[in-house]
Amino acid sequence: MAKILVHITCGPEQPTRAALGFLVARAAVEEGHSVTLFLAGDAVQLMRDAVLDGLQGLGTGSLREHHDKLAAGGAKFVLSGASSKARGLTEGELGGKQCEFGTPAMLVRLSLEHDRVLSY
User: DSSP letter string over the chain?
Assistant: First the structure.
């Protein structure tokens, strides 16, 4: 199976597009692919519990449902450290979610290590 990197930069202000990125990543996991999501810019806010619980995309489903299926399926979540810091998102606020903070250099490295890169 393939290694797929999903790079998401839109946040709660674009709920349909944000949920679509998670939905496509979920579909890849359900097909047996290895998936990494790299959230940057406003997308880091998608990992806040209030956003996960409340965001519903038009025709793209519940962000919480997608997240939980991704986590259960072994997807890896990487959040831009600079974007997180700029938006006040701390490790403590992530509440034990399977996430790590990354850098632009890490995004470049991940894009080279994966077979396909999808952007939302």
Answer: --EEEEEE---TTSHHHHHHHHHHHHHHHHTT-EEEEEE-GGGGGGGSHHHHHH-EETTTEEHHHHHHHHHHTT-EEEEEHHHHHHTT--TGGGTT-SEEEE-HHHHHHHHHHSSEEEE-
